[in-house]
C-alpha cells in the first residue's frame, strides 16, 4: 500500500513527540509508551492524561496523572494551575516534560496551550497556532476551547472570586449531579452575613491594605461575558438554554428575606437570564402539547397570545452556603433565619415565569424577598 506524503506526515506526527518549547514535548500515547523514545528525548517528567490508566514506567519518570475523559464537559481548567506548576518546576530544574493524552489532539494540547498562554501572556488562538506549527493535528474539543478562552478572560487566575469561573463551576456541578448522582466538590457562593463579618475582620487587621491586587495579569480589556460554556443537558437543545448573564452589578445591596429582613444573597451571586419565549417556551414543556394544538385548531382559536406574564417572577441565584439539602436533585429553599419558604432549587433546571429555562436553578420568589 502506498501512502500519500500527507498521510505519511500525519502518521509520523502521530507516532512522534513534538518539542513545543525547549524541553516541553507533546504527544499521543505511543511515544509515552516507548522507553526508547522517552530516553532519546531525555524526558524526565510526564503529564499523563488518559481516562483510566496507570503510569507505564513508575519510578523511572516523575508523573502527574490526570484521569480525565476527552469530553466537552470535563473540567480541565481547574487543573491548569497544578499542571503549569508541574511543567515550570520540571523545566526550572533542567528537566524535560512530555505532556500526552491518547491522540495528542485535544486534552494534552489544551494543557500545553494553558502553559504557553500563562507563561507568554498569549491569547488562545496565538497559543494554538504556536502548537499547530509543530503538531498540525491539534484541535481541542469545544468545551476545552471555551475553558481556554475563560482562562484568558480571567487573567490566567483560576479563582472562584471570578464570577465567570464560578458560573462555569456551577454548570459543571449540575452536569456532575445529573451524570453521577452526586457532587464531589461543591462550590458555593458565600453567605453575605459571613462575607460581611470576614470583610470587617480583614479591615480591622490591615487597616491600610491596598486593594490593588496580586501579580495576576489582566489581559482582557473588557470583561465581556462569553456564553459559550458547555451545554448542560445533552438532551436539551443548546438554544433552549438560557445564557448565564453577568451579575447585576447594581451595588452591594443584597437580596433580603421579606419577613425577617435577613440578608440572603449578594448581588454578584444573582444570575440574570434572557426573558424567554413566553408561550413557545411553555409549550416546550407541555406533556400534552399535541392535545392543546388540536384543540386550538378545532375550536378555531386565534393563535395563542402570550397571555402569560413575560416578566420574571423569580430571582435566580448561585447555590449558596445556607441552602439546605443541596446534594439532593431538587428541594425547597427556606430562609436560614425565620424558616419561611423562599423558593425551590433543581440541579436539572426550572422554568422562569418568563418562559426561560435556567439550569441549574436556585429560584427565589420575588414576593418573598426584597430586591
Ligand atoms: Zn425570567
Ligand atoms: Zn427570613
Automatic annotation (TrEMBL):
Give a GO molecular function annotation for the protein.
protein tyrosine phosphatase activity
Which superkingdom does the taxonomy of this entry point to? Eukaryota
The record's Pfam families line, in alphabetical order, gives: DSPc (PF00782)
GO CC annotations on file: nucleus
Write down the InterPro entries for this protein, in alphabetical order.
Dual-sp_phosphatase_cat-dom, DUSP12, Prot-tyrosine_phosphatase-like, Tyr_Pase_AS, Tyr_Pase_cat, Tyr_Pase_dom, TYR_PHOSPHATASE_DUAL_dom
> Record's SUPFAM superfamilies?
(Phosphotyrosine protein) phosphatases II
Disordered: annotated segments = 207-255
Q: Does the keyword Hydrolase apply?
A: yes
Q: Which residues form the active site?
A: 101 (phosphocysteine intermediate)
Q: What is its EC number?
A: 3.1.3.48
Ranges for the Tyrosine-protein phosphatase domain? 16-157
Does this entry carry the keyword Hydrolase?
yes
| Ranges annotated as biased composition (Low complexity) | 207-234
Q: Kindly state which keywords UniProt assigns to this record, in alphabetical order.
A: Hydrolase, Protein phosphatase
- Name all Tyrosine specific protein phosphatases domain ranges: 78-136
Homology family: Belongs to the protein-tyrosine phosphatase family. Non-receptor class dual specificity subfamily.
Output this protein's name.
protein-tyrosine-phosphatase
Amino acid at each position: 500500500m502506498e501512502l500519500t506524503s500527507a498521510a505519511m506526515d500525519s502518521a509520523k506526527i502521530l507516532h512522534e513527540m513534538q518539542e513545543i518549547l525547549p524541553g516541553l514535548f507533546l504527544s499521543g500515547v505511543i511515544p509515552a509508551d516507548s522507553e526508547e523514545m522517552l530516553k532519546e528525548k531525555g524526558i524526565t517528567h510526564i503529564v499523563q492524561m488518559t481516562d483510566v490508566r496507570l503510569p507505564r514506567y513508575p519510578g523511572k519518570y516523575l508523573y502527574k496523572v490526570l484521569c480525565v475523559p476527552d469530553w466537552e464537559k470535563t473540567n480541565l481548567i481547574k487543573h491548569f494551575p497544578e499542571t503549569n506548576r508541574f511543567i515550570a518546576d520540571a523545566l526550572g530544574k533542567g528537566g524535560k516534560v512530555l505532556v500526552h493524552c491518547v491522540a495528542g489532539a485535544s486534552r494534552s494540547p489544551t494543557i500545553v496551550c494553558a502553559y504557553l498562554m500563562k507563561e507568554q501572556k498569549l491569547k488562545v488562538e496565538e497559543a494554538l497556532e504556536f502548537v499547530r506549527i509543530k503538531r498540525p493535528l491539534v484541535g481541542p474539543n469545544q468545551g476545552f476551547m471555551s475553558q481556554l478562552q475563560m482562562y484568558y478572560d480571567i487573567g490566567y487566575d483560576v479563582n472562584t472570586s471570578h464570577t465567570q469561573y464560578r458560573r462555569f463551576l456551577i454548570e459543571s456541578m449540575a452536569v456532575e449531579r445529573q451524570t453521577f448522582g452526586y457532587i464531589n466538590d461543591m462550590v458555593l457562593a458565600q453567605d453575605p452575613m459571613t462575607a460581611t463579618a470576614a470583610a470587617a475582620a480583614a479591615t480591622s487587621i490591615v487597616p491600610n491594605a491596598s486593594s490593588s491586587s496580586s501579580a495576576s495579569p489582566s489581559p482582557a480589556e473588557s470583561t465581556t461575558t462569553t456564553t459559550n460554556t458547555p451545554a448542560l443537558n445533552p438532551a436539551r437543545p443548546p438554544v433552549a438554554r438560557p445564557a448565564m448573564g453577568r451579575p447585576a452589578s447594581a451595588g452591594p445591596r443584597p437580596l433580603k428575606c421579606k419577613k425577617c429582613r435577613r440578608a440572603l444573597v449578594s448581588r454578584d451571586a444573582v444570575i440574570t437570564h434572557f426573558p424567554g419565549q413566553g408561550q413557545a417556551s411553555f409549550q416546550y414543556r407541555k406533556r400534552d402539547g399535541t392535545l392543546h394544538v388540536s384543540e386550538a385548531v378545532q375550536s378555531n382559536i386565534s393563535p395563542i397570545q402570550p397571555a402569560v406574564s413575560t416578566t420574571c417572577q423569580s430571582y435566580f441565584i448561585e447555590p449558596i452556603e445556607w441552602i439546605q439539602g443541596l446534594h439532593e436533585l431538587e428541594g425547597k429553599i427556606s430562609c436560614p433565619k425565620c424558616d419561611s419558604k423562599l423558593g425551590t432549587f433543581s440541579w436539572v433546571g426550572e422554568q422562569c415565569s418568563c418562559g426561560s429555562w435556567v439550569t441549574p436553578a436556585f429560584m427565589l420568589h420575588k414576593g418573598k424577598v426584597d430586591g
